[in-house]
Write a structure and sequence with these properties.
Length: 342
């Protein structure tokens, strides 16, 4: 039996949106944005080997009225395209003359990972989602993480971080509501509208945890991957718009689900190399022992099987068929609780 917990609706812990006119400019990385206007800027780490300014671009929508300042970011992993495009697709829905608060949109945080078309930066091989808080004297990505903490976190009240399953696999729609930070993170996760609330792994080093440790709500949204799909972009956009309505940045009623599921998930590296044949889809509910995937040789002989460790949900399934020993084969979710919204 899965336990049931109730969750009383509560606001995200950020300054409330009001109808009081914003009188102050918003400043970030040398860019100054007047109330009711939009401006672009760039956080610059330094000059790279090509003489270009290394860092990341942002666009600020500074509302006419007072409200929370929310960072919406993609491209922490360079090969996760749907999230990057979702941030850009939000632009058309933001009218600063009507907005309460400020949206700081960062479509691609790790440009060097995007250029490498990879999860990790092509400059130093770092995974930008494992190195926070970084270091001012470390490698390129470590310095960028340190700069993010000094520039972005003080400029914002909350953060939404959009990911996908990466180039190698596809993930079910979910929100990572970091274990130990539920009070800060859960209202954002609920507002995102994905049924699965993943408590997150024991790993640290994420910009999400850096925000949470600063006492500011933050959530990671996952959906898609394996390739680029407009459907996934639209889904992420829907989550962003609902979060912005829930926090009062945009007018209109946010829609919440009646219930969610708190899930813990485990990764399973493949014990065998070969051709990966999926027998399940992300989001599938399966019973313990169900066959989820096989790794076969070129003649179809089965070299390895991936089975469900218990009843649960297929969270991520591999989409790249060429599989080496130790490659990720599945992420499997165990439902800890049904979360009923009151
Ligand atoms: Zn990612």
């Amino acid at each position: 039996m899965t336990e049931t917990e109730t969750w009383k609706q509560q606001p995200v812990k950020v300054p409330a949106a009001t109808d009081e006119p914003q009188t102050e400019n918003f400043g970030l990385g040398g860019t100054v944005v007047a109330p009711g206007s939009v401006a672009d800027g760039r956080i610059v780490l330094g000059t790279d080997v090509h003489g270009l300014e290394a860092g990341f671009d942002f666009r600020v929508f500074h509302g006419r009225f007072k409200g929370p300042r929310i960072v919406v970011q993609g491209g922490v992993h360079g090969d996760e395209y749907d999230g990057q495009q979702a941030v850009r697709s939000l632009f058309a829905h933001l009218d600063p003359e009507q907005m309460h608060g400020t949206v700081i949109a960062i479509p691609c945080l790790s440009e060097t990972a995007f250029v490498a078309d990879a999860r990790e930066s092509g400059v130093d091989g770092c995974n930008f989602n494992r190195i926070f808080p970084g270091s001012p004297t470390g490698t390129f990505s470590n310095r960028l993480a340190d700069l993010y903490i000094r520039e972005i976190i003080p400029a914002a009240d909350a953060m939404v971080d959009i990911h996908t399953g990466g180039a190698y696999g596809q993930i079910a729609p979910l929100a990572v509501v970091q274990g130990g930070f539920e009070e800060l993170a859960q209202p954002l996760g609920i507002a995102a509208g994905n049924e699965i609330l993943w408590k997150g792994g024991a790993w640290g080093g994420t910009s999400r945890i850096a925000f949470l440790e600063a006492g500011k709500p933050a959530v990671t949204l996952e959906y898609g991957g394996g390739t680029y799909r407009r459907e996934m972009v639209q889904h992420h956009l829907g989550s962003l718009l609902n979060i912005l309505r829930y926090t009062g940045v945009l007018e209109g009623e946010a829609e919440l689900r009646g219930s969610y599921r708190r899930v813990d998930a485990t990764f399973a590296p493949s014990a065998a190399g070969g051709f990966y044949v999926a027998h399940a889809e992300p989001g599938d509910e399966v019973t313990g022992g169900a066959l989820l995937a096989e790794v076969v040789d070129h003649l179809g002989n089965v070299r390895g099987e991936v089975t469900a460790p218990n009843d649960g949900i297929v969270v991520w399934i591999r989409r790249r068929c060429a599989t080496n020993i130790g490659d990720e084969s599945i992420i499997f979710g165990t439902v800890l609780a049904e979360v009923v919204v009151e």
